[in-house]
Amino acid sequence: MPEVRRAAQRFHTVGDGVETWHSFSYGVHYDPDQIGFGPIMAINTEHVAPGGGYDVHAHADVEIVTWVLAGALRHEDSTGQSGVVRPGVAQRLSAGTGVEHSERNASADEPLVFVQMMLRSDHDAAPDYAQVDVGHDHGVLVPTVPVRAPAEMFAVGFAGGDTVRVPAAARSLVIVTSGTIGCGDTQLTIGDEARFTDAGEYDLSASSAATALIWQLQR
Prior knowledge:
Elements: E1 3-5, E2 11-14, E3 18-22, E4 40-48, E5 53-59, E6 62-70, E7 73-77, E8 82-85, E9 89-94, E10 99-105, E11 112-120, E12 128-133, E13 142-143, E14 151-158, E15 162-166, E16 171-178, E17 180-183, E18 186-189, E19 193-197, E20 202-206, E21 210-217
Antiparallel strand pairs: 1-19, 2-3, 3-4, 4-11, 5-10, 6-9, 6-11, 7-8, 7-10, 9-12, 13-14, 14-21, 15-20, 16-19, 16-21, 17-18
């Protein structure tokens, strides 16, 4: 059986126009039993008020993967990349030897919700940026953006009545981004996670519309 971590167990931070739920120890939140899963160091679900966000700040030695759930994210970084990221686009910033970036709600009227994940990176050169338009097929694992880490992220959508088989991996992590998803006898709702270690393949199903992100980890 997987380790299940419910949305209500996530750490919670409230800032100026930003509210964040953290899956792992982050910032002022520390739990020695929740410092990461394989190469994953952070999974943060960000709720950003219109016009709000994060001004320029620095990262190094991490892969930063961003998936917008609602609204529009304005991104700018020191590699020269800038633009607006919307749902259906997976963004990756390999921080490498060091990068600065800002992330703000691109709308003055609508809220922004996005999931940002950080992994220990194998990239030790200049920072690098990529983004991928992700397909919307239901009932299948859809690859997203490649990362410089022993990991691959998939998106999955359920129209209702779908079952998806997830291949075996050294570690696998599911985070539900909408709806309710069945994992064996366990029901996972939005913000819940299931974490598998050396568990073989497993099935996910949903009786109504739902979505999730799945990390397949090589160690």
